[in-house]
Amino acid sequence: MNDHTYRVTEIVGTSPEGVDQAIHNGIERASATLRGLDWFEVTQIRGHLENGEIAHYQVGMKVGFRLEETS
Amino acid sequence: MNDHTYRVTEIVGTSPEGVDQAIHNGIERASATLRGLDWFEVTQIRGHLENGEIAHYQVGMKVGFRLEETS
Amino acid sequence: MNDHTYRVTEIVGTSPEGVDQAIHNGIERASATLRGLDWFEVTQIRGHLENGEIAHYQVGMKVGFRLEETS
Amino acid sequence: MNDHTYRVTEIVGTSPEGVDQAIHNGIERASATLRGLDWFEVTQIRGHLENGEIAHYQVGMKVGFRLEETS
Amino acid sequence: MNDHTYRVTEIVGTSPEGVDQAIHNGIERASATLRGLDWFEVTQIRGHLENGEIAHYQVGMKVGFRLEETS
Amino acid sequence: MNDHTYRVTEIVGTSPEGVDQAIHNGIERASATLRGLDWFEVTQIRGHLENGEIAHYQVGMKVGFRLEETS
Amino acid sequence: MNDHTYRVTEIVGTSPEGVDQAIHNGIERASATLRGLDWFEVTQIRGHLENGEIAHYQVGMKVGFRLEETS
Amino acid sequence: MNDHTYRVTEIVGTSPEGVDQAIHNGIERASATLRGLDWFEVTQIRGHLENGEIAHYQVGMKVGFRLEETS
Amino acid sequence: MNDHTYRVTEIVGTSPEGVDQAIHNGIERASATLRGLDWFEVTQIRGHLENGEIAHYQVGMKVGFRLEETS
Amino acid sequence: MNDHTYRVTEIVGTSPEGVDQAIHNGIERASATLRGLDWFEVTQIRGHLENGEIAHYQVGMKVGFRLEETS
Amino acid sequence: MNDHTYRVTEIVGTSPEGVDQAIHNGIERASATLRGLDWFEVTQIRGHLENGEIAHYQVGMKVGFRLEETS
Amino acid sequence: MNDHTYRVTEIVGTSPEGVDQAIHNGIERASATLRGLDWFEVTQIRGHLENGEIAHYQVGMKVGFRLEETS
């Protein structure tokens, strides 16, 4: 059995609805192009304001995924 | 066109319901007295406990807004 | 009247539903064995991914509670 | 009952005597112009030296106070 | 001779008088139930304000103590 | 002689030219409405990109100024 | 199936031999009294020097373990 | 309209001339292979010294860009 | 001569043996697909525990490598 | 007039009495061998415990002093 | 060939002109008394304000230099 | 008995072999010129890569030593 190596990529998911949905949207987009997703960690919660209201939540995340073996 | 300067104020929004609602309440209160709100950034998520349950979520935020030109 | 001392313990609450629910679950479990819970502070928001989707939100929290007097 | 919002302002209190007195002086000055002061948190302890001795302790603090309702 | 292991617990000591006294009160309470106390490290200095004055200093501390051997 | 108290406000200065100019612009705007400016400290250097080029440098700063005595 | 809650305890493992051995010694001692150990995270690597040589490596760690259900 | 996801990549731009030029060089190189660049944030300012003089400024930056939709 | 730009990628190397070996395994895997590797910096040392013993050391690293010129 | 350069040295002052006295003792010792002391900044407040009581407060400080011109 | 050891000293360079010049002035002063300077890292960018304008930029830096062999 | 003051110096030890050996080499070099070494604390673990392999581990450390009395 091998000692796996993981890569960590950083993304920002966004949503007008809230923190959970912004996380969900970011993970969904990441899973469209990356395989082996294993964990995420929130690094920042921000948002954009327009006319005194929250237009978008922006949640920064590190996302870890397992690298495939090279042989 | 001018190089805008922004001011950053720090607030704590609260809610018994959850993190999103505490953010919303804080922004709503800030927009009652400040114009030109542009972004927020969460700095802390805390809460007050009573009788073993969450009485209030308390979300610290930095809120940025554009200063008007002085002429 | 006494000068109370508080103890701070660190837990990780989990939930497949979202951040608020993970906080709620962790606090509920802590209140099953600790009395005098007073506040919590989120230290980390992570999650476990399976098949490109969020399997569990994991929210790290410090939880403070008042120590009883020793006499 | 309302969900209060708090504002956090940052000050530096000073004193030639020590840390506690610098905190005290800063809070006293803040309370002269702000109502509803609720908590403080020390962010930095510095000091100015003259002739090899401590001329002033300078204690940075965040001070939180409750915003009044707007109606 | 053994390689000792230490445990680190986190407490908050309080006092209306000042930082040193809050540290002292917290350590005194910790020593009532823990043996082998070895060091402390201040992690946070806060306080509660009432009527524009300092009601309590609250000093967060990590306290390290030596675990007894298991045999 | 009095023990002065200082207030610290946070601003973001911007400029298309560079870091020094963004600092300069922010300080100039702050000095239009605040007296007794004493020091600044850079907290963040960011920028906005358009068409692959730097449109604006954005420099976050804390700015300290001496509060006037209340009597 | 339940949403598990984890507790995080902080220890310092020591060894005259090196970092890995200090981690190993600390985990071994923790496993003597705690069940369900799940992960550790190094928070600090320090050491004690005597006569210009390393007497002990001291490795601070957070150790997470699963709390049993309460029913 | 979609909720965009952004990716954040980390680069180090270098220049013998100064901080602004090192930022500029790094962004220019990034824009040669990435589309949709949106913002940068400086994470570190270092430099290499040779013969007691600054040979290169090295500016670490996070660079955010919008991911294209997958359909 | 050119002003090189570097890219920084983040990986997690793993090993059941220890910290050095986990670093080594991660770098070896990274060098299988990246050219011009120049430096690494450890960002986190964690590990997975099974049956009270260390199953894997997990070492987070930033790895910097020189980007090739675009012409 | 010249652009002064300052050097920053790090010390730990100790005292059985309290934080202020530990700062005072450290500065007094530093001023015995260094000229041009200008400021200090507290980086850490720790202490050594013996028999459940505070044996020594240990206050880490950065101390800045002006370097003399070289001509 | 030997395994070199480096020492890291901390300085603050100043200039009325800007960040780059303050870095340059500090390095120039350091190189007057230290040999083997190898790298610097900016730790803080501050400045002194007088009459609402920037009197001096103050740039804190860690400077690393190679220690000579002892034989 | 006196209240000792300690000085903290920062070094970087290096080794092609691993983290422990880099710490050891740095401490050995420091002890060649400093007396009264008391503790060290690792601040950074980095390394230099050549041809896809680890050429040197570089371990940053703060090293504390007791200052002699001045009389």
Outline the structure in words.
The structure is a homododecamer of 71-residue chains. The first copy, chain A, has one helix at residues 19-31, and strands spanning 6-15, 37-50, 53-66. Chain A has 71 residues and is of the alpha+beta class. Chain A has one domain: 2-Layer Sandwich (Dodecin subunit-like), CATH 3.30.1660. Chain A has a 3-stranded antiparallel beta sheet. In chain A, a hairpin with a 2-residue loop joins strand 2 (37-50) and strand 3. The model of chain A has no long low-confidence stretch (mean pLDDT 95). The interface between K and L is medium-sized, with 12 and 17 residues. Strand 1 of chain C pairs antiparallel with strand 1 of chain G, so a sheet runs across the interface.
Keywords:
71 residues, homododecamer, three-stranded antiparallel beta sheet, alpha+beta, elongated, Dodecin subunit-like
